[in-house]
Write a structure and sequence with these properties.
Blueprint (H helix, E strand, L loop, with lengths): L5 E7 L5 H14 L4 E6 L9 E3 L5 E3 L1 E3 L4 H5 L6 E4 L8 H11 L3 E7 L11 H7 L2 E5 L1 E2 L6 E2 L1 E6 L2 E2 L13 E6 L9
Parallel strand pairs: 1-7, 1-8, 2-5, 2-6, 6-7
Antiparallel strand pairs: 3-4, 9-10, 11-12, 11-13
The structure holds adenosine-5'-diphosphate (ADP) and zinc ion.
Length: 188
Amino acid sequence: MTKEGWIEVICGGMFSGKSEELIRRIRRARIAKQNVAVFKPIVDNRYRPEAITSHNGVYTDAIVIHEAKEILEHLLQKTNVVAIDEIQFFDDSVVQVAQELADRGIRVICAGLDQDFRGTPFGPTPKLMAVAEYITKLQAICVQCGGPASRTQRLIDGKPAETDGPVIQVGASEQYEARCRHCHKVPV
Ligand code: ADP
Ligand code: ZN
């Protein structure tokens, strides 16, 4: 018999459907009468702060946390599925927390960006992928050529953002687009 407890990672660029897929897995786990705890980091400033939201309009409530270790304090005895969105915004301690939960017999489902706007591995996501049992890498649609998009184009005032700009920037003139490798531009 297969023992319970493993790590799943859902990764890809922006608009690739990571949140949509995470919400789908949460919904199906609840249909199967699993006890699911849902978390997200505080930095996500999308319009619904206490929920995981997809660009397609679906959402599910989430507990907002500052650090991955807070997950341990929120778990009930009966919690057997833990879902975490926007994992790229946690520090590396999220890897240890995910491992501990999986070792305890919990199904851990993580979703997040695997690359930043420069196309470089993003935060703890690559490390989680290394220790995960299952990885789903999703692609969006490139807004320039219509092909599969593995990357996120950052635009500042409509122009490709330079490589040495900050990875996270809060500001009105900032925009993100799904693009493929060939249409993705990072000026140096
Ligand atoms: P992610 O969490 O990866 O950013 P979401 O689940 O929030 O993805 O959004 C996925 C949805 O975004 C799609 O179902 C689609 O409705 C919408 N969407 C908007 N632009 C694009 C695009 N360029 N490629 C694919 N989906 C897109
Ligand atoms: Zn393209």
